[in-house]
Amino acid sequence: MPTKAQSNFAKHRTQEAVALGLFFTAIFLCLAFFTHNAIDPSLSVATASSQVHNSMGLAGSYVSDLGITYFGLSVFWLPVAFLVLAAQLVKHRGFHEAGFRLCALLPMLLSFATLCTLLNVMPEWPAPNSIGNGGLLGKLLAVICSPMIGYAGTLLLMTLTFFTSFVWWTGYAFSDVARFSRITYSFVSMFAKYAYRGLRLSLLHI
After folding, report:
1. Alpha helix (H) ranges present in 91-173?
2. Which of the four pLDDT bands, split at 50, 70 and 90, describes residue 158?
3. What H or E segment, with its residue span, contains residue 124?
4. What is the Cα–Cα distance from 92 to 69, expressed in whole angstroms?
5. What is the pLDDT of residues 185-195, one digit of tens each?
6. Residue 146 has what pLDDT?
7. pLDDT at position 147, please?
8. Which of 100, 103, 94, 79 lies closest to 15 in space, CA to CA?
9. How far apart are CA 149 and CA 151, in angstroms?
10. What angle do CA 10, 12, 18 make, to 5 degrees?
11. Dihedrals φ, ψ of 142, to 5°?
């Protein structure tokens, strides 16, 4: 029967192995999504050309096409999510905490996809199709919710859902987010003040 120390050793090595896999998966997804090309061969694009522009090859082309088609801009959260999970496992936080974060990830992705559809911040993306910034799932949720609670209501609901699931996913409380926002604001204000003073002095000496 293995001792507690042996069990912990095996558990920690397993967590580190999974974390390493998540890290390389995050790098793969990041490169695949950022080098996505709408004319690459994929499930939604039939082409006679065998040329692939995606840096992750044909696999990257298929993965990026699926992710962007269904989740739109929201899919770029996935590499970040895997990196966060990898970091948690390296710290030996346990698989149960990682599972909880994964459960919070889906509503975060869906709500962000819906927000992207509603706001449509990049009208020409992803060219050349007309799915929209939130992908098929974001468009579907917007179509379902908008007639019931209106555009503004859908925007508020999805914003609340996103921030709530984001807090669950990161493990930080709203008070932590508010404190971080205040610190960031103070730092940016101080930097802007000194930069403005420096600019004024440099102009006076010209």
Report:
1. 95-119, 135-170
2. very high
3. none
4. 35
5. 676 677 677 66
6. 92
7. 92
8. 94
9. 7
10. 100
11. -65, -40
